[in-house]
Amino acid sequence: MLLMLKNLNQLIFSVRMKKKKRERNSILLQGSNDLFIGLNVILCRKRHRVFSFISAVSGCLLLLLFAFSVLTPPPTATDHFLAHHFSVVRKTQVVESNFDEVFQVPTSGGNLGRHLWSSNQSKFYYGCSNASKRFQSADLKTHPNRYLMIATSGGLNQQRTGIIDAVVVAYILNATLVIPKLDHHSYWKDTSDFAEIFNVDLFISSLSRDVEILEELPRNGGKAWVPRSMRVPRKCNSKCYQSRVLPVLNKRDVVELTKFDYRLSNRLETDLQKLRCRVNYHALRFTDPILEMGKILIERMRMKAKHFIALHLRFEPDMLAFSGCYYGGGEKERGELGAIRKRWKTLHVSNPEKVRRHGRCPLTPEEIGLMLRALGFGSDVHIYVASGEVYGGEETLAPLKALFPNFHSKETIASKEELAPFSAFSGRMAALDYVVCDESDVFVTNNNGNMARILAGRRRYFGHRPTIRPNTKKLYKLFLDRNNMTWDEFASKVRTYQIGYMGEPKEVKPGRGEFHENPDSCICETKGLESSQERNDGVEVSDEQEQQSLQSDPDWTDIDYLDTGGLSKELPNADSSVSNKHGQPEVEAFFSD
To answer: For the packed helices 156-172 and 270-278, what is the interaxial angle rounded to 10 degrees?
Structure first.
């Protein structure tokens, strides 16, 4: 029993000891847990401070890098960099950039909603030049032993105006006209006679009811007549001829009017204007060889394309030098053209900016190309170019050829053998260009010379075929600023500025008007349309206004080229002396064509 109690006490003691041990271990474990938690708290606080320190250091480094990037200059632009920049500009169309690549010229002319090759209004107008019942025929009014001789002046087309006006002057003076003499001594140095360029028989026969015309001056009782040589002022009207030339003609029987170009006023009575048209558009035709060769050139252009443009391009060194225009060629251009300009000792010092601002500078080949593209003509269009020597040669023509690769001339579509009968004579070569330009679907010019004016009038008379003359006064600023705008903006402005310069019917002629350019008296309208007087809106240029415009707005067609280098201006005053006893030099269109 005692042994059992003893064992029971030992068991109870053992249990108590294990319990105390567990309690002690629990305390130790709790303490270790508290210690671990405390250590974790300490470590978290330490880590936060480290991260704060690292963040502060990183922020300082970022600030330093930003300051460095702002204050350091940009790297030098390389060609590769600029090329990449331009490609970005092309994609985003950044208008503010001044780089040329912003001004992208399309290859297509676009769809402008109008017909490029004709006018939809032309069918309502037609040429009409028949004489009225009041117009006396030649057999009733021509006086016997009264002969008028004419010496023309300038290039082919300037001489053409003289021939046309000579017929009218003969009618005014009731005189017999002797076939006019062509100019063999001007800048062009062409020895061709009238019969070698124009059809004499047709000229005489078709005008037989209007004016008596002889090929040669007849002899006076077996002796040769001695004509009185005279010179009349520019724009001389009917009264001028009747009061100043007719008395001399009655006394001497034969009068020769020299330097006869633009010697007849634009303002004549309607029957005289219609006579001008009968001469120009029906009687004055080229010889058969010229017409046949011209027909061959036209057929070859038609074989290349259904429609084609004819461009009369005047950009000769002499003409540019005289005009005083500057085209950006630097000292080389100034030196070369300046040396040529010294031929004319009386020329004043040029102001290129003023000349161009007034619209007196011919457009460059590139500018003509840009204008045509803006008007809707794409790169697939074929162009026949009538031109002389182009200043700068192929380098000057390159931009135009890039815009219109289908670039032709009589030299490229005809052989040397075919052109041989004409190539030694500037007048006959000019006649070939005249024929092709006249038959083209669209005629374009970069100048306001004689050929441009003559053909503009002819194309109006025969159906108002499109004839594009650049509005140089407006376009010059546009060409200067073209790199500061998009192509669409440029093209829109070109089309706006060219309104009234496209050869459309009812165009109001801006500024002065040459009758040969706008033969309004010879253009009639179909029934149901307003009369020609009404369509002019009552605008009429008086004699005084005409004279003022001639003096205030001269161009190179009013310039006299003299072998001695002298130049003089003749005032267009109908009261100036008719005769020129001392042979003083006067105006002649050196830059006539």
So the answer is: 130
Q: How far apart are CA 363 and CA 356, in angstroms?
A: 10
| Alpha carbon distance 33, 38 (integer Å) | 8
The residues facing 177 across adjacent strands are 148, 213
Whole-number Cα distances in Å, 412 to 1, 383, 419, 451: 149, 12, 11, 22
Nearest CA-CA partner of 292 in 419, 427, 415, 163: 419
For residue 254, list its beta bridge partners.
147
148 beta partners = 177, 255
Residue 503 in tokens: 């050869």
**Strand (E) positions, 338-413?**
382-387, 407-408
DSSP 409: -
Cα–Cα dist 310/27, whole Å: 114
Q: In sequence order, what are the residues at sequence separation of 6 or more whose Cβ sits closer than 8 angstroms to the Cβ of residue 341?
A: 321, 322, 324, 347, 350
Among candidate residues 176, 159, 158, the one with its CA nearest the CA of residue 167: 176
Burial 570-588 (b: 16+ CB within 10 A, else e): bebebebebebeeeebbbb
| Helix, strand and coil percent figures for the chain, each rounded to 5 | 50, 10, 40
Q: Number of H helices and number of E strands within the chain?
A: 23, 12
C-alpha distances out from residue 310 to 319, 362, 407, 473, Å: 21, 16, 10, 23
For residue 243, the 8-state DSSP code is I
Phi, psi for 216 (deg, rounded to 5): -140, 155
pLDDT at 585 over 50: no
Q: Which two tokens stand for residue 199?
A: 């059809």
Q: What is the pLDDT of residues 71-90, one digit of tens each?
A: 444 433 333 322 333 233 23
What does the block give as tokens for 85?
A: 């920049």
DSSP string, 457-519: HHHHHTT---EE---HHHHHHHHHTGGGS-HHHHHHHHHHHTTT-S--TTPPPPS---TTT--
d(CA 226, CA 309): 49
Residues facing residue 327 across a β-bridge: none
State the pTM of this model.
0.75
Distance of alpha carbon 318 from alpha carbon 308, whole angstroms: 29
Whole-number Å distance between alpha carbons of 56 and 61: 9
Inter-residue contact 115 to 512 (CB < 8 Å):
no
What is the sign of the dihedral through the CA atoms of 191, 195, 196 and 197? positive
Distant-in-sequence, close-in-space partners of 101: CB < 8 Å, separation ≥ 6: 86, 89, 90
- pLDDT band, residue 155 (cuts 50/70/90): very high
Mean residue pLDDT of the chain comes to: 79
Strands (E), 218-298: 228-230, 254-257
Q: How many angstroms separate the CA atoms of 282 and 462, rounded?
A: 11
- What confidence score (pLDDT) does residue 149 get? 98
Tens-place pLDDT, residues 440-453: 999 999 998 899 99
Q: Are 512 and 553 in contact (CB under 8 A)?
A: yes
Buried b (16+ CB within 10 A) or exposed e, 258-282: bbbbbbbbbbbeebbbbbbbbbbbe
Element (H, E) at 525: strand 523-525
